[in-house]
């Protein structure tokens, strides 16, 4: 078992991996956090989205 899995638990492992990614975008000009974008992309890919437009539509149709 990976050390980070033991430390954060199985449910939080992916979240921990995403948080370790450095966000190099310019602060103050970002509408959404990098974590939000990564989760949308991952879910979109799992659901069969095949491009950025499909992922944007996926995110818009599932927005609360």
UniProtKB/TrEMBL annotation:
Keywords: Membrane, Transmembrane, Transmembrane helix. It comes from the Bacteria. The chain crosses the membrane at residues 32-59. It holds the Pfam family DDE_Tnp_1_assoc. The keyword Lipoprotein does not apply. Residues 16-63 form the H repeat-associated protein N-terminal domain. PANTHER family: H REPEAT-ASSOCIATED PREDICTED TRANSPOSASE (PTHR30298), PROTEIN YBFL-RELATED (PTHR30298:SF0). This is ISAs1 family transposase. It comes from Legionella qingyii.
């Amino acid at each position: 078992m990976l050390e980070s899995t033991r430390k954060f638990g199985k449910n939080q492992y992916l979240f921990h991996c995403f948080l370790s990614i450095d966000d190099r975008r310019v602060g103050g000009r970002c509408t959404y956090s990098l974590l939000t974008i990564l989760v949308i992309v991952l879910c979109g890919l799992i659901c069969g989205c095949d491009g950025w437009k499909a992922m944007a539509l996926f995110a818009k149709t599932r927005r609360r």
